[in-house]
């Protein structure tokens, strides 16, 4: 499917590719992030990487015929990890079976004759929020996904930091407690306590214990409904005043505050921009998180660091790969 948002054509343009396990998107914009056209299609991973890359090529070629190939500056790619951004390789992401050491950068560079850059999706989102979102104008920024999982994109001294082999920012693996919900394969991890999947596991544990002790849980009155618990249902109930749901949120917020304190004390950022769950529930989470931060973080470091909800919202996917192209 194609969406056209501008009738005029830019004098120069960038193309961003978002490779997802369910959907793929191609976005064309100018240097000011004005989007001129967006194309998206179902990934259909069973086709394998060759067929999917060929579909990308086909759509890109049509855009180049329309907008003049010589005006294309660069292509940026956002994709889930693991990957090697320096070598331009996609290295078997869980949501893209069969994509083993795919040299996506070399393939597209040879096909279209322009520079191509690759970043994981957390880094790509960090670039977008830094260039035109909540972190605009900063030199040192941390972006936290806080969605299905917990990952970070790090902007340090005005540049994306991905580490020696693209594992910089894997904050979800940090252990915050000896035991707790499993996230990133580790019990008691940052992702275990602070992600959609982790909060659902935490909720099941807390609610099950209450049922076993014959304590009524209004927002989940039966053990049969435990598997239906989600982060969304927990926050909805907490906002409505459910005491058990609020207890679960407070546990997550406590560990979220501790993790933020570690990041603030270690990296001394100007701001931490947080997406998804935090952005949607800032009014509930912010005071709980700051209560912990004021106890845990170095006061001088906390004083210069703003905790902000992501600004781009659902549009961040459109801008993330473009940010990679423009970095």
From TrEMBL:
Transmembrane segments: none annotated. It comes from the Bacteria. Gene3D superfamilies: 3.30.420.40. Pfam families: ROK. Belongs to the ROK (NagC/XylR) family. This is ROK family protein. It comes from Zobellia amurskyensis.
């Amino acid at each position: 499917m194609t969406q056209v948002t501008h009738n005029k054509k830019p004098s120069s343009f960038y193309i961003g590719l978002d490779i997802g396990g369910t959907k793929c998107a191609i976005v064309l914009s100018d240097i000011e992030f004005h989007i001129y056209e967006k194309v998206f299609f179902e990934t259909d991973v069973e086709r394998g990487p060759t067929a999917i890359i060929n579909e990308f090529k086909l759509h890109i070629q049509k855009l180049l015929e329309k907008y003049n190939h010589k005006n294309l500056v660069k292509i940026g790619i956002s994709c889930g990890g693991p990957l090697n951004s320096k070598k331009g390789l996609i290295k078997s992401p869980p949501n893209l079976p069969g994509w083993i050491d795919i040299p996506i950068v070399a393939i597209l560079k040879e096909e279209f004759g322009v520079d191509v850059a690759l970043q994981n999706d957390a880094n790509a989102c960090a670039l977008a929020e830094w260039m035109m979102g909540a972190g605009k104008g900063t030199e040192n920024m941390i972006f936290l996904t806080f969605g299905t999982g917990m990952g970070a994109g790090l902007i340090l001294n005005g540049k994306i930091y991905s580490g020696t082999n693209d594992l910089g920012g894997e904050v979800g693996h940090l252990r915050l407690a000896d035991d707790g919900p499993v996230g990133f394969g580790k019990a008691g991890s940052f992702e275990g306590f602070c992600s959609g999947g982790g909060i659902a596991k935490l909720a099941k544990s807390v609610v099950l214990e209450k049922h076993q002790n014959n304590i009524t849980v209004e927002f989940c009155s039966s053990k049969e409904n435990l598997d239906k618990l989600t982060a969304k249902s927990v926050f909805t109930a907490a906002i409505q005043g459910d005491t058990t749901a609020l207890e679960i949120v407070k546990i997550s917020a406590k560990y979220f505050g501790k993790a933020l304190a570690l990041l603030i004390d270690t990296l001394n950022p100007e701001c931490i921009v947080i997406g998804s769950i935090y952005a949607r529930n800032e009014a509930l989470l912010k005071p709980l998180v700051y209560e912990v931060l004021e106890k845990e973080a170095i006061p001088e470091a906390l004083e210069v660091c703003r905790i902000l909800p992501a600004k781009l919202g659902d549009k961040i996917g459109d801008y993330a790969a473009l940010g990679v192209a423009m970095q």
